[in-house]
Amino acid sequence: MSRSDIWVDFGLSGLAKWLSTPPGSGLESSDVVGEAIAWGEGAYAATLLSDAERLLESPLPTEVVNVLWSSAVRREYTEEDPWLDGRAWLREIVSLVMERYEAAEVSDLRSRRGASAGPGMKGAVLTEIEVMAAPMEAATETDHYGGVRGVVPALRRVVTEVDPDLGFRFFLRVLKVYGIPITESRYLRYHELGEELGYHELVVDDGSLWVRGRGEPQVS
Fold it and tell me: Kind of pairing, strands 181-182 and 210-211?
């Protein structure tokens, strides 16, 4: 199965959706990661491993990873009272993949990683982040359930210092999970970028994006 055949959000952005299950569901994080790793004959495992290792290899400090992940799962976060160690969490994800697969299989998963998206895509994704910067800041910083500060700067750093592909998927994730409204023109542009990045159309929107004039959002 190629990445374009994965019809659900994949990698860390997709895992964040899985882990937005309401508290009390009885699912442990490691159990959810295990289910994701097993999905799609290893297709999902390859994307999880790639995303986690890209972030671990990057210069992003733990605090930025904490902000990024907290916003992706819509969980309140403050630097003074952190609820996770983002880099330790990434290492746990890598470890869970390694536990499931033999060394040769892990090598095969890594071979599917591909190159980071080019500089043109970096500029394109940054443009979309800037267009939505103000509403994203307002939504993420004031949310009574998952208030997080510094989301927009964190997204910028992922795009510029890690990978535009990963940054775009986390950007879409924030729009979806906080129910931030977008215009029809932005919606169409996101699908254009998704096509350039080789996404299945449902990765861009599975019904969770709130396009003005289409009713209330499906917060996901």
Answer: parallel
CA 159/CA 121 separation, integer angstroms: 9
What's the half-sphere exposure (Cβ side, CA atoms, 13 Å) at 91?
6
pTM comes to: 0.92
Location of structure tokens 């729009």: 175
Q: What is the pLDDT of residues 103-113, one digit of tens each?
A: 998 888 888 77
Residue among 39, 64, 17, 35 at smallest CA distance from 218: 17
Calpha distance 119→96 (Å, rounded): 32
Contact 194, 204 (CB under 8 A): yes
DSSP-derived secondary structure letter, 116: P
Contact yes or no for 28/135 (Cβ under 8 A): no
Residue type, 170: F
Instruction: Locate the domains of the chain by residue range.
Output: 3-211
Contact 29, 65 (CB under 8 A): no
- How far apart, in Å, do the first and last CA atoms of the chain sit? 25
Q: pLDDT band for 25, please (50, 70, 90 cuts).
A: very low
- For helices 103-111 and 43-57, give the axis angle rounded to 10 degrees: 80
Q: Is the pLDDT of residue 121 over 60?
A: yes
- The helix-helix angle for 62-72 and 86-100 (nearest 10°) equals 70
From residue 101, how far is each of 43, 44, 46 by CA, in Å?
Answer: 13, 13, 11
**Regarding predicted confidence, which is higher, 80 or 116?**
80
